[in-house]
Amino acid sequence: MLLLAIDTSTRRVGVAFGGEQGLVAAVEIGGPADLGKPRHAERLAPAIDYARRESGVELSHVSAIAVSIGPGMFTGLRVGVTTAKVMAQALRIPVVPIPSLDLLAYPLRHARALVVPAIDARRHELYHAIYRPVPGGLQRESGYELGTPDDLAGELEARGEEAILCGDGALRFRDQFAHLERVEHAGSGHVSPDLAALVELAAGRYEREEFVTPAEVVPMYLRRSDAELTWQRREASAGW
To answer: Which of 55, 72, 134, 150 is most buried as measured by Cβ atoms within 10 A of its Cβ?
Structure first.
């Protein structure tokens, strides 16, 4: 069984091929330091082709496409999810959708603390969730949420437990959490959703037949796009 994995939920474009035995090939372009205009649409297709050529993989051998569905950057998610759906439709294979916050948390499943992934949502907000390590993995204890760094800091302070923050949002707003004595940062190695985690989690779900058709894949946005919000403001100001 071979999977094509795609993550475009943050500024990074990530592509991998792999299966039950782990990664066969992986390509990552961009990241938190890439502060220019997001270029997911320009980078994704070449990244897939490069990973395919470097690994000698034929797309006809791919059994399913694993894709990070968010929450995350609106434009990036749209590019990644649309590409996954179009390719799966063309190859007549299913899609395994995985939330991006799950992919950030999963590599820290052996921690003896709460795992709190936080993705930069812009407008001084974060997408975040809280996970507790349990035998065999992680158990999510909150919803996939959108809030300010202060909201998340307040929730962690109220819980009073050891916690590990990860993700580009945790990195960007690091100072907002500095006063929390029982909260640590996972570091720069845990900034983007993990491609190995995407392959591993998707492989398990594929084996359990927990996949969907391309038409059933829906991005997890959590809020409206900038364009929709701008249109709403214009309607309100015009009195429509």
So the answer is: 72
Q: What is the largest CA-CA distance in the chain?
A: 59
Domains of the chain with CATH codes:
3-99+193-233 (3.30.420.40), 101-190 (3.30.420.40)
Alpha helices in the chain (DSSP H): 40-55, 74-91, 100-105, 149-159, 168-172, 195-207, 226-238
Residue by residue, DSSP assigns 173-206 as TGGGGTT-TTEEE--GGGSS--HHHHHHHHHHHH
Mean pLDDT across the chain: 92
SS3 of 233, please?
helix
Per-residue pLDDT tens over the stretch 65-74 = 999 999 999 9
**Per-residue confidence band for 239, with pLDDT thresholds at 50, 70 and 90:** low
Q: How many CA atoms lie within 13 A of 10 on its CB side?
A: 32
**Single pTM value for the model:** 0.91
- Strand order across the 64-68 sheet: 22-29, 13-19, 3-7, 64-68, 95-98
